[in-house]
Amino acid sequence: MVNNERLNEFREMAYACTRCGYCREKYSDDVPTKTPAFGVCPIWEHNGGFEHHCSRGKLQIAQGILEGRLQYSEELIDVLYTDPDCRLCSWVCNAEPVLDPPKIWQAMRQDIVSAGLGPPKKLKEIDSRVKERHNVFGGKPELRDRWAEGLNLPTEGVVLYFAGCYASYTQPEIARSTVAILREAGIEIAYLAGEEWCCGVVQFHDGSISLAEDVARHNIEMIRASGAKTVVTACAECYKSFKVDYAEIWGETGFEVVHVSEMMSGLISEGKIVFKSSLPESRVTFHDPCRLGRYCGVYDPPRNIIESIPGIELKEMLRHREYAWCCGGGADLVPSMNSELATEIAAGRMAEAKETGAEAIITSCPRCANTLRDAEEGIKVYDLSVAVAQAMGLNV
Predict the structure, then answer these.
(1) Residue 33: φ, ψ to 5°
(2) Does 272-391 carry CATH code 1.10.1660.10?
(3) Cis before residue 97, ω within 30 degrees of 0?
(4) What are the pLDDT digits (tens) for 144-203?
(5) pLDDT at position 145
(6) Is residue 23 scored above 70 in pLDDT?
(7) Model-level pTM?
(8) Do the Cβ atoms of 192 and 162 come closer than 8 Å?
(9) Architecture in CATH for domain 140-267
(10) Residue 38 pLDDT more than 70?
(11) Does 197 or 22 have the greater pLDDT score?
């Protein structure tokens, strides 16, 4: 018998679905329609359109589990993990806080892990890498701060930069650009170097909550020891981990967390960020990361920044802001379960970007940037910090 203690905490939420079907219909504004441009669930739309792939279907499964009519099978576990937790279903349902479906899936995954039935193999491998080497890639811990060579960043200070795994190991241009921008604006930046660990985003979503809490506790302790009052990150997933997951577990951490887009937008308004040139591409579009947008409500700052760059025209995709389509890579869930499906979702998003006439797509999440580039749709993908540094004429 599986212990459903965590799921029981969300019993009322699991039973709150009115079965209206918004989570599997097409929609335009608030009206369900057959307009193909608007889908609600990327998994339901790209994986056969079966009921168990949409929010309504999985909520019925949760009820079955709670009532003892269903047990976790291998097939059911695959369904629960093949979901990017993008929260579009929550937004379209508009029943929050009564109903927030991804919280149900996360509770079910925690039960699956506590029962020894998961997470599935590839996610378990990521968990092992985070536990042993404190990053999702399994890179050597001593190489985490390689990107910062020559920058002479102190380990203590009022403002601390949290780079995250992607900027540290696979996209160092994001980290170097972020530091260069803030320094140019007159902000002294501290950095934890080897004491920075993965934020735990995969573990918060795959149900390995004990490991998630361990890495979160370490990061909080190290940040407090650094004397930082403000933590800035350019990663939407790190931002969400700090703002949502850490806050739910520990409440007040003693420091403020801001996304670099929020900080840069303010610095532009204050005249502390000055652009000296433009980008090679004059028409761009912006991809809203799910963790930055629907989880944390940050929509305007990235757009304010892009529209401030000389010679740039921002072309919005049909699905943007709260209704933005997921890149398919969130928390490494779908790529770990079905890499072809993740690529298909990303390719659909890139095709939507091209339909705007944009020559480049800008996003503010390293995982989104990586996933969208893998779709290979012939359109340039920029991280926001990299684009800003380039337009500022900074040599990073």
Answers:
(1) -155, 175
(2) no
(3) yes
(4) 999 999 999 999 999 999 999 999 999 999 999 999 999 999 999 999 999 999 999 999
(5) 97
(6) no
(7) 0.93
(8) yes
(9) 3-Layer(aba) Sandwich (3.40)
(10) no
(11) 197
Sequence-distant (≥ 6) Cβ neighbours of residue 268 within 8 angstroms? 304, 305, 308
**What tokens does 65 get?**
């589990």
Kindly report which listed range (21-30, 46-55, 166-175) carries the lowest average pLDDT score.
21-30
Cβ neighbors of 96 (< 8 A, separation 6 or more) are 90
Instruction: Confirm if 114 and 3 have CB atoms less than 8 A apart.
Output: yes
User: Same fold for the domain at 140-267 and the one at 272-391?
Assistant: yes
Owner of token pair 């003693």: 254
Tokens of 198: 């993965």
What CA–CA distances, in Å, run from 267 to 75, 88, 174, 301? 50, 31, 18, 11
Q: What is the DSSP string of 75-105?
A: HHHHHHHS-----HHHHHHT-TTT--HHHHH
For residue 243, give Cα distances in angstroms to 17, 151, 295, 328: 27, 28, 9, 22
| Mean predicted lDDT score pLDDT of the chain | 91
- At residue 334 the predicted structure's pLDDT band, cuts being 50, 70 and 90, is very high
- Name the DSSP class of 195: G
Distance of CA 180 to the CA centre of its chain: 23
Element (H, E) at 217: helix 209-226
Domain residue ranges in the chain? 5-114, 140-267, 272-391
Locate 260 and state its tokens: 């670099």
Q: Which residue spans within 88-228 are E strands per DSSP?
A: 159-161, 190-191
Quick one: what percent of the chain has pLDDT higher than 90?
76
User: Which pair of structure tokens corresponds to residue 269?
Assistant: 């308004």
Q: How many CB atoms lie within 10 A of CB 247?
A: 13
Predicted confidence (pLDDT) per residue in 73-125, tens digit: 999 999 999 999 999 888 877 766 677 889 999 999 999 999 999 999 999 99
Beta strands in the chain (DSSP E): 26-28, 31-33, 159-161, 190-191, 230-233, 256-259, 283-287, 313-314, 360-363, 380-383
Phi, psi of 94 (to 5 degrees): 60, 30
